[in-house]
Amino acid sequence: MFPPADDPPDLAIPPNRGPLPVRRNPNPNPNPRAPSGHQRDPRPQGIRVARAHRGARRGSFCTMWRFLSGSIAFSVLFIVFLMVMQTKIRVPEQGWSFLDGIKSGKSLKFGQGSLLRRFGQRNGLDHLRSEMRIGVRRPTLALILGNMKKNPPSLMLFTVIKNLQGLGYLFKIYAVHDDNSRSIWEQLGGQISILSPEIYSHNDWTTFEGIIVDSLEAKEAILSLMQEPFCFIPLIWIIQEDTLAKRLPFYEKLGWEHLVSYWRSAFSRADVVVFPDFSLPMLYSVLDTGNFFVIPASPVDVWAAESYSKTHSKYQLREDLGFNKDDMLVLVVGSSFFYDELSWDYAVAMNDIGPLLSKYARSKNAGAMFRFVFLCGNSTDGYNDHLKVYGYNDHLKEVASHLKLLPGSVRQYGMNSDVNGLILMADVVIYASSQVEQGFPPLLTRAMSFGIPVIAPDLPDIRKYVVDGVHVVIFPKNNPDALMRAFSLLISNGKLSKFAKAVALSGRLLAKNMLASECVNSYAKLLENVLSFPSDVLLPGHISQSQHDAWEWNSFRTADMPLIENGSASMRKSSVVDVLEETLSNQLDSGNISNSETENDVLTQLDWDVLREIESIEEMERLEMEELEERMEKNPGIWDEIYRNARKVERVKFETNERDEGELERTGQPLCIYEIYNGAGAWPFLHHGSMYRGLSLTTSARRLRSDDVDAVDRLPVLNDTYYRDIFCDIGGMFSIAFRVDKIHKRPWIGFQSWHAVGSKVSLSSRAEKVLEETIQEETKGDVLYFWAHLNVDDGPTQKNRIPTFWSMCDILNGGNCRTAFEDAFRQMYAMPSYIEALPPMPEDGGYWSALHSWVMPTPSFLEFIMFSRMFADSLDALHMNSRQSMNLSQSMNSSQPTVCLLGSSKLEKKHCYCRVLELLVNVWAYHSARKMVYINPYSGQLEEQHPVEQRRGFMWAKYFNSTLLKSMDEDLAEAADDGDHPRERWLWPLTGEVHWQGIYEREREERYRSKMDKKRKAKEKLVERMKHGYKQKPIGR
């Protein structure tokens, strides 16, 4: 389907493969500067960015040579040649096209201002570090590796992850495929889990603060994170391949828009898509949704240079290319981006090199000579039939003869040649472009890694990393005299000077780890701005604490691996891209086959006439048979058989009130456990059995062909996403309690969050059996059975002490759990300020229920919901008062951003009440004298927690008395019935039934009035008939 990728002769610089459209040109008009006689295509042209691994592209100086002028002394000759070259070079439409809107002196840059502005607003973790915080566990991240090859991208990622661990992050590593570097990665994250389709769907990603995905190969992991409840987890996707970028132009050409949309949807899921250089985001621009980010740092150039040096000889390369051993080779490289239409800019830049050519390329000393080699383009000597362009060397020879240069003193090699070999055999490398480039030029990094002295212009991104006269020699741009002086510093008697050798050595040492520190710091800063850190999480160390400034070379250079792998080949081929293309092409082929078959089977008029004749004959035969059957006597059969057939038909008929299969399975069961979930991503975690029934918090996320309960349908307040988010699982419980007799008619009721399965604390089959037998035997007393216990002991600092219930609640709620609970409890019971309002909880080391995973008698459940509704309403009232006092919201519109004192991260503020309400069942069960029993989810072993006998003197039983709660509930119902709302937005009437004695009496009176009215009408009708008799209306009127 697509042309095969050419394997480059060098190690990490593939050849320039021609134009790749990046952004459409909004100006469709032809370029007025285009040469006359060559008609340009009037359709919009895309930005041409031909990528040759990280910026090793066709340099801008190639175009310079078309307009080469020589020295200032030949300025008139320079102008003449400029005009002649422009008319001689023929550039075809299809091979060369650039943005017409870019003018002379401008450069192409990738802008990531929107993300930088967003990060600037968040200001990292500075505001969190200044606040009081109680953290007990390290921030946990999932790392999904697309491959585990020993190559430069893996080295970069390994270095970053290891340094992030030093800052306090904890990583769980997953991999799509197993490979030879597994043992290296296990040093960081322990045992690595190999992902499969089953693991994708059965892994609870919400346990991580964020996810880092590496490579396009991990695309399936991205798809599994696009469903609720996983679609809100912060995701960083690192893409270092250009495989897909090269295919995108073909997709557009073939009309595969749905495949482009497929990839765009996957890219849009990531909060940030990170690239290692500034060319890749422009190549992938058709998939950009505003989340592209660049961290320009990779050891690929150093890796390639060191590996190439061990297998190639400098002098052998010279001999192979026809250079003498004593020749002074000067390699001229250029900018990463080039524009063939901007010849005047390049001609001015080339003016800097003219004096060097005039001075050094005209003489020959003792058999040695200066040779200038220009690295640019893909073309070779002679005429290229494919590109219809005269070779660059033809123009170089012509210019050299006019400038009276020695034969062979100037040569040109394309990017499809051995780039590493050309750099290795050079004596000096000159960066000849004055274009401002984003990031440090990759070819300079490679030249420094080979130990070649480098001369470069005074550009900001070069000055940022190197020191003039130490690592490279820097000259003011567009200053030929300064370039001449810089070059003379490196030459002494036709050889490299001692100064040049010192610069080369210092540059080589610097290049080895030049970008490592910046790479680590950039990723650390990115995580601070992307991740949300919950209240119980320790904040990572400050970026300044990361002192590691080198790549982890030692970890990747072991005896069991070759010194170098073809890094470019590993990034060129992507099985994910190939599989998707193959799937699509097969679908298109099958569609074409079906279309061809349809075309061959088109019916003619004769076929339609024959068909009508056949149908008419069959219709006549059918009518004759019916007439014969009517005239024949029939035996109706035995009455029992007729009755049996009639009953069978009745059973087959659909009944609107017919019970489904799930309800029939639960018939006779004493217990039903409702599993609460809020998205299609949680479906694999739910059970299928007579004991369980799903409870969906969103209508659109209900399982297909199931009898799951729709919480939104039963409790309309959950239609408001604000309330659904702040209530979480307890909102589903409110919906079950609302007119519970219509949906739950069993003596026991239970709940379990889908997170319990993801956390591997759900009931095993053995524990289920023990629980079922226990509740059938224990018929006396109220008991709360729970199997998921509260546990925040996740660090070495917590091993010597067991945190109390209220301290654990504070940890999970931003340190404000006690305050919020006490204030809500005080307002709920109208307690004066001088009375203690925080119910005491024991410090006996026992377990407390968590994750809403418990079972209790149905009457007890209704009493708990009665208490929870009033507490939630009181908590909401305090929350609204805090919002008004801070003047952050004058209206009560729930769609506006909220202020939550019970959390610090964005996700915690979104689910503000969830963590307090999750622990509320413990306070209610303890102080209402319910027996609390922990059942081991694996073995089924029962163990009573906080025995009732030991609670005497500590329980606040008077506040949790069922009579008091019912009285309070009736008072609230009476106020709601009378329209006497205590505040503008009163939550309590929206969370369940509103019922009191007055409503009962009014309903009874209405029923009595309806009954008497019916009797009166019947009596009046009877009297009317007795008086006037019964008259039938005439037919036809």
TrEMBL record:
Membrane-spanning intervals of the chain: 64-85
Biased composition (Low complexity): 13-26
Biased composition (Basic residues): 1028-1037
Region (Disordered): 1-45, 1009-1037
Keywords: Membrane, Transmembrane, Transmembrane helix
Protein name, UniProt field: Glycosyl transferase family 1 domain-containing protein
